[in-house]
Each structure stands twice: as C-alpha cells, then as structure tokens.
Amino acid sequence: MVSFISFLILTPTSIVLGKKTVSAVETQFLGPNGIFLGIIIALISVEIYRFAIKRNWTIKMPDGVPPAVTKSFDALIPSALVVVFFFLIRILFSLTSFHTAYNFIYTILQTPLKHVGISLPSVLLYNFLASFFWFFGINGPSITNSVWQPIFFVSTQDNLKAFQNHAPLPHIYTQPFIDLFTTYGGGGSTLALLIVVFAICKSKRLLELGKLAILPGIFGINEPVIFGLPVVLNPVIVIPFILCPVLNTLISGIIMNLGWVAWTNGVQLPWTTPPIISGWLATGSWTGSALQIVEIILNILIYYPFVKMLDKQYLKEEKAAAEKDLDIDFSEV
User: What cellular-component terms does GO give this entry (predicted)?
Assistant: First the structure.
C-alpha cells in the first residue's frame, strides 16, 4: 500500500491540452510506460520501510492495546518516511528539465533498455539462458523472466496499441513471440523430441515416457520430459535442448524481419496455447502457423540423432537389466 501511494505521489497531476493545463491524473505512465518506475518505487519503499522497522523507529503502545492497533501504529513512522521521501523526489524532479520522475526513468533507463532488450542478440541470450538453467534442474524462465519480462510486456503492449489503432506494429520481439515462436512443447522445444520418440524409439523407458508426456507437451508443459528423461545433467540431450530454442529464435526473428511472416499483434495468449493454433491467433495470419510447422520439423531433425543415441543407450541398459533378472544361481536351490 505504501508503495502504491508513493507511485501515485510521483504520478503527474497536470495534463496539457492545447494551450490549457488541466489538473488531472496523467494516465500515460500508468500502463507499460511506467512499469520500470513502479518496480524501482517498490524496491526503494520496501528498503526504507525495513530500515525504519529494523531501528525501531515506531510508535510504542501500552501493553493493553490490541495487537491490530499496535501494528497500525508501528507502521505510521516507516510509512511516513517513505511518503516524505518520494514527495521530496517529486519536488526535486520538478526543478529539472525532466519535470517528473516518469520522464527521467523513461528517457534515461526504460527507452534504452527496451531497445536493447528487444533486440535479436538479447532475445537469443534469453532463450540460451532459459534452456541452460534447465540443464541444472532450475526453472530457466523463472530466472530470465525476472530481467526480460518487463521489457517484453512493454513491447507487447506497444504492439497491441498499434494493432488496435490499425497502425504498423513497432516490435518483432514480444512476449507472444517468446512464448509461441521459440519453444514448442515447453523449454527446449521438446515437442519435437516426443515426436521422434514415437517415430523411432524402441526403448520401453522412452516409449512409456512419451505416452506420459505427449499430452501435456502439446500444451507446453514438459516437466515429465525434463525430469523423467531426464534432461537435467544429461550431456547428450542438452545439446539439442539448447540449440532448438536458439535456432527457432534466430529463424523467427529473421523471417519476421524480412516480412515473410506477420508479426505478433500484441494479443496476450496463454503460453499453454498449442502450436499452429497459437501461430494463427498471435499473428492473425496463416503465416504464423506455417512458421511454427517449419520450425517443429526442423527441431525434429535436430533431435533425431540425439534421441536415437539415447534410445540405443537405454536399450542396452534394459537388456542388461533383463539378463540380470534371468541370471539365477541354481546352485543355491
């Protein structure tokens, strides 16, 4: 609540309409344009509040006062410090050429970060790291999204606004692009892996895993593959697991940049939307679905030799286990 109040304190309260200045809440930065400032305010507010509480800068109440009332008074001084701090920040920025903290953050931080964050090298790095962390059993997107998701959110909203106004879409790299055109079947684009399993594998272990994982895999949920195959600490399968998303990102980015495939229109589909359907919905064009089909086929070709190698390994292990079970010492009977 204190962070929200601080956010409102820094929100401009005057709007220039022609030659007139109207007193009103400026909503321009209450959307994606204000997301970075909102994050910064939340972090600073918590630290100031924690600093005051840690040093017991609170109003002490008698022992007979109900706990709920005591807690309310405990929060007064720390909350007041936060509010005063951001009120002073507002005054300081009003004396500069930026006029508001929003303009400062948007000009100095958000705009440069947005251009860097939604570039092809940045998105390639995002997908590489997301897959790389999975190799160690860490949910990769939960790590990378903490850095990139605010940037993707802004670019997605920019595209949605342009789409609604029938204007040219400004960005290729949006959250729907990341969710729907870089990985198919979850991290590592493992839907292709499962297709290869059903196509060529003879290992009982892989076939049983495929039966278990194919349905959730269609909807982008692939923990059964990551921990059941496993992908974690598997030096064989990690190569295509990292390569496929990176290659999908590169191909999608280049082809969309060439104008061969429609860009994502900003409509935020659930990341669980199945491929082909999602490609059409996200772009409003059949070209989105066609791109997904091509990339899934390419991913199948990439996974093929690695899955075949893994299948041979598992067949040997299953054969050895079966022979061990049949190796009975009759001398003890």
Answer: plasma membrane
Q: The tokens 């909350």 sit on which residue?
A: 79
Q: What is the pTM of this model?
A: 0.70
Query: What backbone torsions phi and psi does residue 172 show, to the nearest 5 degrees?
Result: -85, -45
Cα angle: 243, vertex 142, 250; to 5 degrees: 30
C-beta neighbour count of 47 within 10 angstroms: 11
Q: What are phi and psi of 39, to 5 degrees?
A: -65, -45
The gap between the terminal CA atoms of the chain, to the nearest Å, is: 76
Reference 126, options 84, 78, 179; nearest CA is: 179
pLDDT tens-digit readout, 97-141: 877 888 787 777 666 666 667 788 889 999 999 999 898 888 888
Count CB-CB contacts under 10 A for residue 179: 21
* Residue-wise DSSP of 251-283: HHHHHHHTTSSPPP-S----TTSPTTHHHHHHH
Cα–Cα dist 114/143, whole Å: 18
Mapping DSSP to helix (H, G, I), strand (E, B) and coil, where does residue 171 land? coil
- As a whole number, mean pLDDT of residues 169-176 equals 93
Handedness of CA 25, 27, 30, 36 (dihedral sign): negative
Task: Report the 10 Å Cβ neighbour count for 160.
Answer: 19
| Strand segments (E) across 18-112 | 20-23
pLDDT digits (tens, 9 = 90+) for 219-277: 999 999 999 889 998 989 999 999 999 999 999 999 999 999 999 999 989 999 999 99
Please give the torsion angle defined by the CA atoms of residues 278, 242, 253 and 110, in that order, rounded to the nearest 10 degrees.
Answer: 100
Structure tokens at 8: 């409102």
Quickly count: other Cβ atoms within 10 Å of residue 81's Cβ.
17
